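Title: Request for sanity check on Glutamine synthetase prediction

Description:
We are preparing a figure and want to confirm that the structure record we downloaded matches what your pipeline produces today. Could someone re-run it with the sequence below and paste the raw structure tokens into this thread? We only need the token string, no images.
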Amino acid sequence: MAAVSPSSHLSKAVRQQYMSLPQGETCQVTYVWIDGTGEGLRSKTRTLYSEPKSIEDIPEWNFDGSSTYQAEGSNSDMYLIPVCMFKDPFTLDPNKLVFCEVLKYNRLPAETNHRLSCSKVMEAVKEHCIWFGMEQEYTLLGVDGHPFGWPTNGYPAPQGPYYCGVGANNAYGRDIVECHYKACLYAGVKIYGTNAEVMPSQWEFQVGPCEGIEMGDHLWVARYLLHRVCEDFGVVATLDPKPMVGNWCGAGCHTNVSTKEMREKGGLQHIEQAIQKLSKKHAKHIHVYDPHGGQDNIRCHATSRFDSFSAGVANHGASICIPRQVYQEKRGYFEDHHPAANCDPYTVTRAIVATCLLDTDEGEDSK
């Protein structure tokens, strides 16, 4: 049995006694932000004395950046700038979750705040009405780092029966998956679906279609909800692109892309033009498709090779895949297989837009 956290053994009945207490006209607002690792999420909660109706009703806040890998102790105050609001599935309406950008003491973006530069790029191409859908793979672990449901000493049966599998011998942790799905729906996250993945204890959820900057916002909040649901169950969700060495599948974040022109009649030519542009900047995209300059992509090998570019119809081993239905209908979208599971969706979508629609170099933030 996987090691679970001590907190998961606390009485949920006692907790519910307090959670059901009335709170009058007050509202709990939980601020969520990306920390200095570029992968971790942090949150803290405050009271507002009326329910916010829009993001403009949420005040800025601050936190100690020296405790989140974002500042030195001698000058550590960082600003939290609310950018989008969701319903809180843990404390329920009228309470809210608010995703925030982080600014430094001089009100410049923190090093891991890639949202601001992404937003500028999305604004520049808004007439293209670009849609994204991202397929987030993750692996469930015990708090000891061992995959949830795996034998304590040894390995489960080889890969084969687990992808979209059913049954107690094939699906490990489905309760967590279904609770996360419901939490996303309640919150207002644009979750599209979910399925078990190739490696046992590995799952996937999809977010989208989302237009422009919304893609990053909704995927980051979906990740936050996943970590919080797992916390309640006493397990850990890792986005490590290669959590287990050996002949076990890695984890990616395939990214589906569609512009207005691609969705219209004859859109296939626009898809093929975008693929041609991506082929010329393959190495630069690999560099920004994980938080470690492409090193995680090298480890992952989830589907496509990191060191060469390829494209094909219904070819899930290629860098870029055109789904068969899209090819037959001559319009729709394409799928980029390279982003790693721990990618920042802001850097991924910014890179794709810059290459496919702006013909610019996408490797650096223009903060």
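Thanks, this matches our download. The first helix runs from residue 12 to 19.
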